[in-house]
Design goal:
The chain is an alpha+beta fold. It has one domain (6-66). Helix content is 25%, strand content 27%. It is built from 2 helices and 3 strands. The protein has a 3-stranded antiparallel sheet, with no helix packed on it. Strand 1 (6-12) and strand 2 form a beta hairpin. It is rod-shaped, with a radius of gyration of 22 Å. It starts with 5 loop residues before the first strand and ends in a 5-residue tail after the last helix.
Length: 71
Amino acid sequence: MNTQKAVTTTAQNVEDQTISIIRCSEPNEKVKQLYDALKYKYAPFTRKKSVVHKMKIKKSQVATKQESPPI
């Protein structure tokens, strides 16, 4: 059963966004037979894609984050 894997691919696009795609590999014939007997799907999930937008930090946000609380 350890022949089937989930693969995550991550890349940056021209807009500096992080794109992640998660896919499940194709099971071999023996695993397919077992899945058929158990009425399982060949892939536990469909392909998933996510885009993470970079946050732009303003100068006012940077200044407030660098301040330390009074003791």
